[in-house]
Amino acid sequence: MERSRVLGRTPRPLTDEEKAVLREAVGPLLPDMDATGQTLPGIREEAHHDRGEDAVCAWIREPGGRDGPGIEVWLYCSPADQLYYLAEQLQSWAGDVQVDPGRRPWPDCPDHPGSHMLMPDTRDQIAVWCCPQSGRVIAAIGRLA
Ligand SMILES: [Zn+2]
Question: Are 129 and 141 in contact (CB under 8 A)?
Answer without folding.
Answer: yes
